[in-house]
Amino acid sequence: MLNIGGNMSNEKLEELVKDLTESQLSDGASLSIEKFDGDNMVACIKVEDREEFPVYMTVDEGQLLCITYLFGDNQVDQSRRAELTEIMLMMNVSIPLSAFSKIGSQYIMFGALSPNSNVSDILHEIETLSDNVLDAIDAVSDYLKEAA
Amino acid sequence: MNIFKKLITAVRGGASEVGEAIVDTQAIRILEQELRDSKAALEEAKTNLTAIMAEKMGVDRKVKDLGEKITEHEGYAIQALDKGDESLALDVSNKIAEFEHEINIQQGILDGYETKVSTLKKLIRQTERNINAMDREISVVKTTEKVQQASDLASAKHSGSSSSLKSATDSLERIKERQQKREDQAAAAIELETEENGADLQGRLEKAGIVDSESSGASVLDRLKKRKENN
Fold it and tell me: Are A75 and B168 in contact (CB under 8 A)?
């Protein structure tokens, strides 16, 4: 039953990708989108000039997820790790639309939308998430290891 | 066990290295099995509910029939009394007492069924909620796994190495630099445009003879002389 839902969701995602490719963010930045097929299709959305932090988008019956990877455990100053996670947890509520989380060893930021969201809602989400990611990394950079 | 606790087991079981599976497939398999069990239990509960509701309707009918019979016999008893047949009235009254005894028993059974139906309905609602939650969580776990794979694939394709290994602060710096460059370019373009417009205006003023195209020592002297004469 998950697979049937997955296929229907994949169709939905294909449709969204088509619409998004033709759209721009409010500041005129364009989006380049790549699809990764599978049971649960994933779209990798890159915002012009911010290609370093792509937004991964998936849809299932319950929600539409936009995920961006921030940094890995290996980049965290281990002596301040507990402090960092506490700060991220506390920041969560005040960040508009996005929240911190972790997948495996990777810290992420994500936003969840209704699977019935329209293109303008999703564009707003992508734009907000992208802004939030840059702000968040800036905000927690003291807890990351000095760049080599 | 709480569904969230199960999830913690599922997402924690995975390896922590980039590129390795992050989800404990065994844990997911167990979750999926439990989901199937829950769905089977739900189906059974629904079948039970249907059966009990059918039985309840049967008893309902019996109670109603008995009620009607009581009313009917009460009529007979009164008619017997009207005719002065006390003995017949007593027989009918005994019959009514039997019916009333029976209706009490059936009403008790009916109440029992009602309690059962409401309990089953609650159970079904709870099971459905659990199933929906499990469905959603399994889907999210699978999705995050897919996202991880896609991210690995994407970074391998574009840079030959995992971009997640690159420093986030470095990336942020690069983006900021690009943004600054873009802003500088835009500012420079605006400045250039202003200058060009300024030059254009000067040219048009000169052409119209409003502004001297070139001021020379001679022209300045001319001007000064004129001013002196006027004074």
Answer: yes
- Among A66, A24, A81, residue whose Cα is nearest residue B143: A66
Q: Which domains does chain B have, with CATH numbers?
A: 3-162 (1.10.287), 171-230 (no CATH)
- CATH class of segment(s) A2-141: alpha beta
DSSP-derived pairing of the beta strands A106-113 and A99-103: antiparallel
Interface membership of A53 toward B (CB under 8 Å)? yes
Report the residue from A50, A63, A69 with minimal CB separation from B151. A69
pLDDT for residue B25 is more than 80: no
Subunit contact A75:B20, Cβ cutoff 8 A: no
* Token pair in block for residue B1: 């066990």
Are the Cβ atoms of B172 and A137 closer than 8 angstroms? yes
The token pair at A75 is 């980049």
Is B22–A69 a contact, with Cβ atoms under 8 angstroms apart? Answer: no
C-alpha to C-alpha distance for A135 and A125, rounded to whole angstroms: 15
Among A4-13, A74-83, B28-37, name the one with the lowest average pLDDT. Answer: A4-13
How much is the pLDDT for B24?
64
Interface predicted TM-score (ipTM) of this complex, two decimals: 0.77
Q: Closest Cα to residue B143, out of A128, A18, A126, A10? A: A10
Are the beta carbons of B164 and A106 separated by less than 8 Å?
A: yes
Inform me whether the C-beta atom of residue A56 falls under 8 Å from chain B C-beta atoms: yes
Q: Is B188 exposed, middle or buried (0-12, 13-18, 19+ CB in 10 A)?
A: exposed
Chain B neighbours among A 2-31 (CB < 8 Å)?
A: 2, 5
Contact with chain A for residue B181, Cβ under 8 A? no
Is any Cβ of chain A less than 8 angstroms from the Cβ of B148?
yes
Q: Which residues on B lie below 8 Å from A137 (Cβ)?
A: 168-169, 171-172
Query: What is the per-residue pLDDT across B80-138, written as a single tens digit (0 to 9) for each?
Result: 999 999 999 999 999 999 999 999 999 999 999 999 999 999 989 988 888 888 887 77
pLDDT score recorded for residue A111: 95
Give the pLDDT band of residue B215 (cuts 50, 70, 90). Answer: low
pTM, two decimal places:
0.61
